[in-house]
Amino acid sequence: xxxxxxxxxxxxxxxxxxxxxxxxxxxxxxxxxxxxxxxxxxxxxxxxxxxxxxxxxxxxxxxxxxxxxxxxxxxxxxxxxxxxxxxxxxxxxxxxxxxxxxxxxxxxxxxxxxxxxxxxxxxxxxxxxxxxxxxxxxxxxxxxxxxxxxxxxxxxxxxxxxxxxxxxxxxxxxxxxxxxxxxxxxxxxxxxxxxxxxxxxxxxxxxxxxxxxxxxxxxxxxxxxxxxxx
Length: 230
Hints:
It contains seven helices and ten strands. The relative contact order is 0.20. It has helices at 49-56, 79-89, 105-115, 120-133, 149-161, 179-196, 207-212, and strands at 5-16, 23-34, 38-42, 64-69, 72-73, 90-94, 167-171, 199-203, 215-220, 223-229. A hairpin with a 2-residue loop joins strand 4 (64-69) and strand 5 (72-73). It has one domain: P-loop containing nucleotide triphosphate hydrolases (Rossmann fold).
């Protein structure tokens, strides 16, 4: 059965600055990503990897081209509509896990559901379930400063998936982790993607991580240089 295409870009270009100071970061990037695919985006520093990921995640705008996500055309969309769309369909994981320091582990995880205005009791139940699934049940009342880097990243993954997103976007998610925690995190993400049919897109500089994904998109100087399968 042919998988549904849920991400499609056509000639997306993005730059910063004006006139002589204009820097083009992405140059007519066109690609298609299917439901449940596991993708890595690689390339040298400054190639446009994070910029592309931010555009796919509706966190950044673009000057020209088109973006279709889950059948929705992302252009000239209100901030409110984009926020709602992100909360409902997308999960984000960053190198700096971006947990809120004043909240406990379980409170950080359930935030996306509270933004959706789901009942606190239900959100808390789902948060506790994920903590148990990730082996962090005994850390539920700890705040980020009381947790290790690996624990914080597992919590950020739990937060990314609690809303049952269609797409997870991860920007250098293992960059601040040691090799053991890095392997553990990537294995968790791959397992989740396969079990729940979530499209997973990882920006990484680590070739060993890219090797584990189904498809590798190589960016160079703002353009797609190569798309290969593993």
